[in-house]
Amino acid sequence: MNAIPFDNSYARMPETFYTKLSPTPVAAPELIAVNRPLAQRLGIDADWLASPEGVHVVAGNAVPEGAEPLASVYAGHQFGSYNPQLGDGRAILLGEVVDGAGQRFDIQLKGSGPTPYSRGGDGRSPLGPVIREYLVSEAMHALGVPTTRALAAVTTGDQVVREQFLPGAVLARVASSHIRIGTFQYFAANKNTQALQTLTNHTLTRHYPEQLVAENMPLALLQAVVARQASLVARWQLLGFIHGVMNTDNMLLCGETIDYGPCAFMDAFQAGKVFSSIDQGGRYAYRNQPGIAHWNLACLAQSLLPLLHEEQDEAVAMAQTAVDRFPELFVQAHTEGMAAKLGLAEITADDTALVEDLFQLMADHQLDFTLTFRRLADLADESSPRQATVKELFEIPDALLPWLTRWRERQQRESNEPDDRQARMYAANPAFIPRNHRVQEAIAAASDDGDFQPFSALHAALATPYQFDPALARYATPPRPEQEVRQTFCGT
Ligand code: AMP
Ligand code: MG
Predict the structure, then answer these.
(1) SS3 of residue 302 by DSSP
(2) Which of 36, 222, 226, 337 is 20–30 Å from 319 (CA)?
(3) Which residues have CB atoms below 5 A from the ion given as ligand 2?
(4) What CA–CA distances, in Å, run from 221 to 158, 175, 269?
(5) 278 lines ligand 1 (CB under 6 A)
(6) Do 286 and 277 meet the contact criterion of CB atoms below 8 Å apart?
(7) Which of helix, strand or coil describes residue 265?
(8) pLDDT value at position 384?
(9) pLDDT tens digits, residue range 155-207?
(10) Ligand sitting nearest the alpha carbon of 284
(11) CA 20 to chain centre
(12) What is the pLDDT of residues 414-457, one digit of tens each?
């Protein structure tokens, strides 16, 4: 039996979709981490993956039996400007596996050497971005947000040249697929309607099989993606997650978060917060994320126009109607999530001021996004909190007390018991997020000293984010001013 039970559907697509090639070997790979539960789910023996043989596969030094490595082509709008030719420039798809429940996953190596789409880049990744993606994508999964995942990571023994010499690394990434809005844009721009049709069928089969019976399948695909992205971006907003590089090539049709480049969770609430060093105009600021997702979906809609209807006007009208649903679906998902965060059965028009005033107070007093909500959860049932509280880390400031009274009055009108309400609030308001200064600490220790202990400890602390453990308080605490990380950088 093969070590990885591959079944590669993308490799069976026409040759216009990719270039087949193998990863470029590295000098002396060493294991950083293996995601055992994920390996198990994918039918891969975790001990094998952690063995020298598995490490060589993750490093790209050996192509496993059944793999059909390829680099896929796509295009995309980067910071609003269209780039007609992107693609897997530092990533190679090894192949796909199907889990016990019949769900199909890509296994991709990131940082595995140059491809025809590298555009002058080296196809490599420094260790820092691999650590960041491993930690943050797995934290997102633990938080319940749809996301690509980290299967394993290795150092390469080679150096990567950026502004300085950095240790190289490879991440084995798992995604439901890597089909991007940019993949559709590439074929639309090349006026390859046949390929668009093939890609639409492939995407529906993989991610929205219930839509295969739809009368207008491209329209059904668009509608389904609009809904899934609205729900995804609502989840980001509810956790204070800032993606940082929401280009159309970084939005997946399957609705998973992808590309943990300059991403970060905010500490103190600030609606205009930006971390990315290259996002000068704040295009991808926290408050802009829903609007950008909407804009990106319009790009997907435009790419699908030739398939929607033979009459251009009809096609445009259908696309417009589908994309116009985004704001409403986003608000619906966001409002439902906010109700859970505040321990309310629902948020009605009467509650709008309550929610808006909270965010205004958080902004005015630079309150920590995560701990404010977590502390409210503690306070939902003061008689007997169901978990250790974060009181030692964060207390509601006096300025918030009038608001707290209003919230409590509003709570009186809820029919459920305080302890149920609190359980629901704890499940919606994490104690642990991958705080940027802790992620940075893990990166620095690994990159500068070869010390992976901070990485492992942080990874462990983030595994059960909705369960507060006072012993792990250092991972729940916001940065002191001198610890604050104000800028994040892409992996390139
Ligand atoms: P990203 O900013 O990660 O979305 O990447 C944008 C594009 O640049 C993609 O086509 C990547 O494959 C490519 N790219 C990024 N970094 C590198 C690199 N080190 N070598 C080659 N291509 C890269
Ligand atoms: Mg990308």
Answers:
(1) helix
(2) 337
(3) 250, 259
(4) 43, 19, 35
(5) no
(6) no
(7) strand
(8) 77
(9) 999 999 998 999 999 999 999 999 999 999 999 999 999 999 999 999 999 99
(10) 1
(11) 27
(12) 998 899 999 999 999 999 999 999 999 999 999 999 999 999 99
Q: Whose CA is nearest to atom 16 of ligand 1?
A: 492
Could you tell me how far CA 43 lies from the centroid of its own chain?
A: 24
Residues 6+ apart with CB under 8 A from 400: 361, 365, 367
Model confidence band, residue 491 (pLDDT cutoffs 50, 70, 90) = low
Opening angle at CA 31, ends 450 and 143, nearest 5:
90
Quick check: CB of 438 below 6 Å from ligand 1?
A: no
- CA within 13 Å, CB half, 207: 27
Q: Is the CB of 124 under 6 A from ligand 1?
A: yes
Is 0.85 topped by the overall pTM?
Answer: yes
| H-helix segments, 175-325 | 181-189, 193-207, 217-239, 289-308, 312-324
Atom of ligand 1 nearest to the CA of 91: 12
Q: 174, 38 in Cβ contact below 8 A? A: yes
Cα(395) to centroid(ligand 1), Å: 43
Mean pLDDT of the chain: 97
Instruction: Return the H-helix or E-strand segment holding 140.
Output: helix 127-143
Please confirm, yes or no, whether 249 is among the known catalytic residues. Answer: yes
Q: What are phi and psi of 173, to 5 degrees?
A: -105, 145
Residues in the chain: 492
Contact 370, 430 (CB under 8 A): yes
Amino acid at 213: V
pLDDT digits (tens, 9 = 90+) for 252-310: 999 999 999 999 999 999 999 999 999 999 999 999 999 999 999 999 999 999 999 99
**Mean pLDDT calculated for residue range 220-245:** 98
Cα–Cα distance measured from residue 277 to residue 270, given in angstroms and rounded to the nearest whole number: 17
**What residues does 92 pair with on adjacent strands?**
109
Q: Amino acid identity, residue 6? A: F
Amino acid identity, position 122: D
Which of the listed residues 83, 109, 119, 132 should we mutate to test ligand 1's pocket, taking the one with most ligand atoms within 8 A of CB? 119
Catalytic hit among 88, 106, 249, 368 = 249
